[in-house]
Each structure stands twice: as C-alpha cells, then as structure tokens.
Amino acid sequence: MSGKGGVGKSSIVANLSFFLAGKGHSVGVLDADMHGPNMLELLHLSGHRMTMENGKIIPIEAKPNLRVVSVAGLMDDDSAVIWRGPMKHNAIKQLIEEVNWGKLDYLIVDFPPGTGDEHISAAQLLKDITGAVIVTTPQHVSMLDMKRAVDFCRKMNIPIIGLVENMSGDIFGKGTIEKFCKKEGIDFLGDIPMSREVVLSGEDGKPLYSYGNSNLDGKFMAVAEHIIDKAEK
Ligand SMILES: Nc1ncnc2c1ncn2[C@@H]1O[C@H](COP(=O)(O)OP(=O)(O)OP(=O)(O)O)[C@@H](O)[C@H]1O
Ligand SMILES: [Mg+2]
Predict the structure, then answer these.
(1) Residue 177 forms part of a structural domain
(2) Which residue's CA is minimally distant from atom 3 of ligand 1?
(3) Over 90: is that where the pLDDT of 142 sits?
(4) What is the total count of domains within the chain?
(5) Enclosing domain of residue 74
(6) pTM score, two decimals?
(7) How confident is the model at residue 228 (pLDDT cuts 50, 70, 90)?
(8) 73 lines ligand 1 (CB under 6 A)
(9) Ligand 1 pocket, 10 CB below 6 A?
(10) What is the mean pLDDT of residues 194-223?
(11) Is the pLDDT of residue 25 over 70?
(12) What is the Å distance from ligand 1's center to 133 Cα?
C-alpha cells in the first residue's frame, strides 16, 4: 500500500515477486488496481488474457511459479474502467474468491494509492492477511498520505510488516522514514535509491538484477529479505 500515488508500489511488487519466484517459492500477484492496472506490463505479460476453466479464473503465468490476475487481463489495452464502488467490490471479490491459483506460498496484492474501495473490500474479503508493506518517498506530502495508510491498517487490524523508503536520495531526501518508524514503533524495511534501473525494469518487465547495479540490487534485496523474514515470523 501507499498513501500517495506513484511512489513505487507496483515496481516493488513486481521485483518482490521475481525475487520470491527466483528462490523457488510459488507466488501469486493480485493486481487490485482497477483504474491503473500495471502488473501485466511490469511482469512482461502485456497483451496476455486470463481464461476460465470449470467456472474459475486461471491466472496468467509469467513462469511456472509466478502467476498474476489483473483486470487488465480482461479488457482491451487502452480501455478505461469506469466503475463505482459496488462494481469494484464485485471485481475484487471475484479476483479473491474465484481464482484457481493452485498451491501458493505467497499472495502479493498490489493496491492503488489511498485507502479506498479496493482496500476496504480486500481487507474484508482476504482471510488471515499476513501484513501490509507500506511504500512512501521521504518527501513531506508523501509522508502525510502514508500516515493515513498506517492509520487505515491500524483501524482495520491489519499488521504492518513495515515501511519502505523509495526514491531515496538527493531529490526527495533520505532518512526521514527510518526516523518516523522509530518514533511510531514500526519496522523500517530499508531504502531504495532513485535509479534509472527501476524505470528500465518496469519498461522491460525484467528483474532489477538484470541491470548490474550492485548498490541498487543490494538495497532491494535487503528490503525483500526483511519483508520475508518478518512475514515468516
Ligand atoms: N526507486 C525508483 N527510482 C526511479 N524511478 C522509480 C523508482 N521507483 C519507482 N520508479 C518509477 O516511478 C513511477 C511510478 O512507479 P510505480 O508505478 O511502481 O508506482 P505506484 O506507487 O505503483 O503508482 P500508482 O500509485 O499509480 O499505482 C514508474 O515510472 C517507476 O518506474
Ligand atoms: Mg501501482
């Protein structure tokens, strides 16, 4: 989750799913963004469509242990989704309850920004949520919105795995999220620097490690391992 839009949630979900699948885990990615569904693009699956079998949705396969469902897998590439709350609730319900995932070790949900219909529906429909990873940039306005996401999780009794400082560096700043976490008693999961390779990874649908930026890889892997450690505990 995040409060503000465009802070890097989907990029992190895509790379976390590559990371987990690369370690041999069976991973499902549920794209809960109805208006800006980007996961197919980020996993190099644009143009792929979901199918139905025995009344169940069959996820799109990126590799044998990495599968994804997204409303983008149901419609034309440039179509706008013009739905009100109840329709979004029904779509999320279908993507949660009517998918034949097979056996999964992890289900990662990519949300739109904010704390809207998609979040409330998923919080109600998903059973036994391990926890929320909240992404923010260190910029003041992003932090203001991030605090609402933290409050949402607390009010809905969703454990917070921790916070990620994304786009860390000269432009938005660095270090403010770790300070916030200490003050609030929330785990700081690490920082990911502002880097061209994150953009390329999204455009090519390839994992970050394909680009040989060892500093960025190290930072991303530290975040991913922290998330997994905490989730396992
Ligand atoms: N660390 C980073 N360095 C440079 N660019 C980044 C970084 N993280 C994300 N981006 C870029 O920022 C843009 C937004 O990222 P992304 O789509 O992952 O954010 P989001 O939080 O999922 O957005 P939305 O709220 O619209 O769902 C993308 O163009 C992505 O390539
Ligand atoms: Mg996104």
Answers:
(1) yes
(2) 194
(3) yes
(4) 1
(5) 9-232
(6) 0.96
(7) very high
(8) no
(9) yes
(10) 97
(11) yes
(12) 15
How many residues are present in the chain?
233
| 1: in domain | no
Q: Which of 198, 215, 219 to mutate to test the pocket of ligand 1 (most atoms within 8 A of CB)?
A: 198
CATH code of the domain in which 196 resides: 3.40.50.300
Q: How confident is the model at residue 4 (pLDDT cuts 50, 70, 90)?
A: very high
The C-alpha torsion from 229 through 45 and 149 to 135, rounded to 10°, is 60
What is the 8-class DSSP label of residue 63? E
- Mean pLDDT value across residues 195-207: 97
Q: Is residue 210 part of a domain?
A: yes
Burial 154-193 (b: 16+ CB within 10 A, else e): eeeebebbbbbbbbbeeebbbebbbebbeeeebbbbbbbb
Q: Given this model, what pLDDT does residue 175 score?
A: 97
Q: Is 39 in the pocket of ligand 1 (CB under 6 A)?
A: no
Is any ligand 1 atom within 6 A of the Cβ of residue 34? no
Of 8-12, 114-118, 220-224, the one with minimum mean pLDDT is: 114-118
Is residue 49 situated within a structural domain? yes
Ligand 1 nearest atom to the CA of residue 4, by list position: 25
Residues 132/17/231/101 CA torsion (nearest 10 deg): 90
Q: What is the DSSP letter of 170?
A: T
Residue located nearest, by CA, to atom 2 of ligand 1: 194
